[in-house]
Every structure is written in structure tokens, then in C-alpha cells.
């Protein structure tokens, strides 16, 4: 997954979406895609912890022309039956599905990023659905509630865990990193007992600073900052331990958030020798790094 994180530094994004209503073009049997304004990014508002507010591409081959060796890990499905079978076969692996259209410029622009991610993320499955390919794919899009393309849906255990419209390569790569969930450098915690065990492992004179990333599954700022968390877990492995917990994973996690008085996410708890010595609320990369260094004893000026 390291390569996925590296993609974030140099891929540029596109945010337009296209309608899936196909209008005949006069004088021919082809179809065109009607473009609509970009969909505003949705931010989860909850009575429980809420999202915290932090302080030129070349056109490549369209998805419809896929099939070369470089994109063989992106599997195109042609019906609801094939789609359901692919989700079941993946079991608990993350499945990323792009719903596209053959005449959508933005589908063509984002597809190379899908191909790049498929080559670097061996623990993630990638599917492609061309909404205008046939009546079967149109019915599949209708079943999944797809009205604009490109549309990305993320599944685990056949359950949809996230979806996005009108995103660029940066956000797509970040979403895959966040929901992929398989990063050895960031310990996944599922209840208070997990937290206490990790604190015990890192207590005493030789104990490291524990940085606990507390978020929600559906939280834009949490997704935004997570690639930074993964990078820091590697670069600071000698001095800090990184972990994360999604408050909406289960009741035990939500109770932990309440006990820790977490009201906005992402919240980063800094723990030293079993004691919470500080916290940072937000998704600012520079601010997060500065806070970590400060609690490691490095003098930081803003």
C-alpha cells in the first residue's frame, strides 16, 4: 500500500460528473452524456461525533477500451449476476467499483488512476461497470442508485461502506487507503480492551508515544488526513506507535468515544505511559505533524 500513498503526491483531480440519462444524437444511433455541475462533497452530520473543520492531465484510453495487460486487474462486469458474484468472491476484501459511461470525459480521465491503484493495491479488488453498455448494465446502475458518472462505490463483505461522485485521483487514492484497512503500520483497534492493551505495550521508560486516530467510517476529513497518518507511521516507527478506531464500527467503539469526550472527528489522542497527555482535533497535515513532534519533546513554533 506504500505505492498508493505515493500516488497522492502527484495525481491531479477532476470533479465534474455526468448524468446517466442517454440522449440520442440526431443523425446517428450513438448517445451522449449530459454533464451536470459537480456534486458538493457530503459531510456527515451526527448527534454523536461530527466532522471537524481543519485550518493539466493528458487524456488516456477510455474505460470502454480497457483490456490491455496493464489494466487486467480491473475486472469489467456486464450484469447484476456477475457483479454480485464478484462481491461474494471478494469476501472481506475491499471492492472498489467504478460506474462509468463510454462517452463521459471524466470517466476517461479517472480510469487511469483506477488502473494505477489496481497495480499497487494487491489486497483490493477493482470492478468496472459501463452503464451504457447494455440493458443489463443500465438495470444494474438503476438497482445501485447510480444517476451520475463517474461514481465510485466501496464494498466490504457485500455491504456498501462508502460512495463518492465527481472525485479526482487524489481523493480516490485516499479513499482506497482509508477503507482498505490493511496497513501494518497503523494498528486497528475495535474496543477499549484493545486500547488498554496497546497502552500497556508502550508504557514505561522505553515506551513510545501512542497516537490514536479516532474517526468515523463516513467522514471526509478523516479520509483526507489518513494518508498522512500512514506515512507518519512509517517515518516515525522508532519513536511513535500509530493506531486508529472508527467510532461507528460498533457500540464498544462509540462508548469509548463518549468516555474520551470526543465530539468532533478526526480527533488524535496523544498517549504517553497510559495517560492522555494531549489531543488534536482536525485534519491539517502540518498541524498534526507539529503536535506529534511537540509531544515528543521537539520545540515547535507556528
From TrEMBL:
A Pfam short name: Thioredoxin
Positions of region (Disordered): 46-72
One GO BP annotation of this record: cell redox homeostasis
Any GO CC annotation of this UniProt entry: chloroplast stroma
Entry GO MF terms: oxidoreductase activity, acting on a sulfur group of donors, disulfide as acceptor
PROSITE patterns: THIOREDOXIN_2
Domain Thioredoxin: 56-204
Bias-annotated ranges (Basic and acidic residues): 56-72
Transmembrane segments: none
InterPro entries according to UniProt: CDSP32 (IPR044192), Thioredoxin-like_sf (IPR036249), Thioredoxin_domain (IPR013766)
Name of the protein: Thioredoxin domain-containing protein
Source species of the chain: Triticum aestivum (Wheat)
